[in-house]
Amino acid sequence: MTATPKNSVSDDILSRVLSSLEDDKAEEVVTIDLRGKSEMADHMVICSGRSTRQVAAISEKLTDKLKQEMGVFSKVEGKDQGDWVLIDTGDVIVHVFRPEVREFYQLEKMWMEPGAPGASV
């Protein structure tokens, strides 16, 4: 039996994350490749939900799907408030924000390279 390459596993998790976010109508989904930029994860996904209720629901469904379908247990922060939720799968970090909170933190500006699609210069 051969070991699955780490990139393949993180890419599989990323694919499942993006599919779940699309199913649950997350808005303005941005994926940032962290390989070579950070040791904390291979990918970061940032998205928005329209309300605290939708942010919490998107996050809950995503963690349940990852657990049930892939056996991935995620660390979750912020779900009780519903303004933002951080989901850490190990290989993929997902941030789900209400739009106002996302604008305040501006994580895309912090992690995206200048000139990348969606990046401000």
Quick overview:
The chain is of the alpha+beta class. Helix content is 40%, strand content 22%. The chain is built from four helices and five strands, in the order αββαβββαα.
Write up this protein.
This protein is of the alpha+beta class. The chain is 40% helix and 22% strand. The chain is built from 4 helices and 5 strands. A 5-stranded mixed beta sheet has the order 1-2-5-4-3. A hairpin with a 6-residue loop joins strand 3 (75-77) and strand 4 (84-88). Helix 1 packs across helix 2 (52-70). The longest helix is centred in the middle third of the chain and has 19 residues, at 52-70. The model has no long low-confidence stretch (mean pLDDT 88).
Global morphology: globular
Largest sheet: 5 strands, mixed
Class computed from helices, strands and strand pairing:
alpha+beta
**Number of distinct beta strands:** 5
Distance between the termini: 47 Å
Which segments are poorly predicted (pLDDT under 50) over 5 or more consecutive residues?
none
As a whole number of angstroms, the C-alpha radius of gyration is 14 Å
Q: What is the percent of helical residues?
A: 40-55%
Helix/strand order, N-terminal first: HEEHEEEHH
Count of helical stretches: 4
Strand order of the largest sheet: 1-2-5-4-3
Q: Give the averaged pLDDT, no decimals.
A: 88
Strand content: 15-25%
